[in-house]
Structures are given as C-alpha cells and as structure tokens.
C-alpha cells in the first residue's frame, strides 16, 4: 500500500482527483457528471464579503458552505447567494437544494425562512448540538 499523505491546504488540482474519479464512475453508470459552483460578493476594495459554494449531488444540489461577513449581514447578500445557487441547480437539472447546519445556529431558522424544510436531524455533534439537514424542492 502506498503511503497516505495529509494535505493541509489542498489545491483545485488536488480536489480535481476526487471529482474526476467520481465523474468517471458516474458516467460508466449513465449518470451526468457532478459539477460545482462558487459565487461571491466583493466590497469596493475587492475584498470578498460573502460567498457560497456547493455541488451537484446526482439529483439535489448541495450548499457546501455559505458565509457573509458580520458587517454585511441582514443586507440581502445571503439570500441573493442562495438564489444564485438555486438558479445554478435548476440549470443543472437538480430537483432540490440541500444544506447542513446545526439546529441551534441562527442559520437553521434563516434557511427555513427561505423555504427550506428540515429533512432530518442527527444528534451527536460537538457540545451536544443536533445536526440539521434541510431541503428545498426546486
């Protein structure tokens, strides 16, 4: 067996190994390949103030991460980024958009206000938190 190496800050090329392998495997089974998205908003000094990323998960699309800098929250950036993710998912032919957060984080309630519904919960996260998986049908 070859040695296994930890890469602390993987590059896009490092991640491409995974995506390429999954896409080849999917194509052999008649499935369209996965793809990813990344949208960001920048301030006047070209600093990222909000961003969202995710991927096609063979049916639903998934939000892998969403962040808005503290000073820019409650100004519509998060909502606009989720809308961009929804648009991307629809173009890809995805039937839903999913996301994971912790139930006691404000994001859980916020996603519900955007039309997401709790699909299931999983206990056992740090500090006795409950993981919350949400879905929005497209």
List the helices and strands and how they pair.
Elements: H1 12-28, E1 36-42, E2 48-56, E3 60-68, H2 77-92, E4 96-102, H3 106-113, E5 117-123, E6 130-137
Parallel strand pairs: 3-4
Antiparallel strand pairs: 1-2, 2-3, 4-6, 5-6
How does this model look, in words?
The chain is an alpha+beta fold. It has one domain (35-137): Aminopeptidase. Helices cover 30% and strands 34% of the residues. The protein is built from three helices and six strands. The protein has helices spanning 12-28, 77-92, 106-113, and strands at 36-42, 48-56, 60-68, 96-102, 117-123, 130-137. The chain has a six-stranded mixed β-sheet with strand order 1-2-3-4-6-5, with helices on one face. The chain is globular and about 50 Å long. The model has no long low-confidence stretch (mean pLDDT 92).
Please tell me the CATH architecture by its name: 3-Layer(aba) Sandwich
Identify the CATH homologous superfamily.
Gcn5-related N-acetyltransferase (GNAT)
Percentage of residues assigned to helices: 25-40%
Number of helices: 3
CATH topology: Aminopeptidase
Largest sheet: 6 strands, mixed
Global morphology: globular
Ranges where pLDDT stays below 50 over 5 or more residues in a row are none
SSE order: HEEEHEHEE
Beta percentage is: 25-35%
pLDDT averaged over residues = 92
């Amino acid at each position: 067996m070859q040695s296994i190496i930890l890469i602390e800050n993987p590059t896009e090329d490092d991640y491409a190994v995974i995506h390429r392998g999954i896409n080849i495997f999917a194509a052999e089974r008649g499935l369209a390949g996965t793809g990813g998205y990344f949208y960001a908003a920048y301030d006047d000094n070209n600093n990222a103030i909000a961003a969202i990323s995710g991927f096609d998960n063979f049916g639903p699309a998934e939000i892998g991460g969403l962040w808005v800098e503290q000073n820019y929250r409650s100004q519509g950036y998060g909502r606009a980024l989720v809308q961009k993710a929804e648009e991307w998912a629809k173009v890809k032919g995805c039937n839903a958009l999913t996301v994971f957060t912790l139930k006691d984080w404000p994001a859980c309630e916020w996603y519900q206000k955007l039309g997401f519904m709790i699909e299931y919960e999983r206990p056992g996260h740090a500090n006795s938190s409950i993981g919350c998986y949400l879905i929005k049908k497209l």
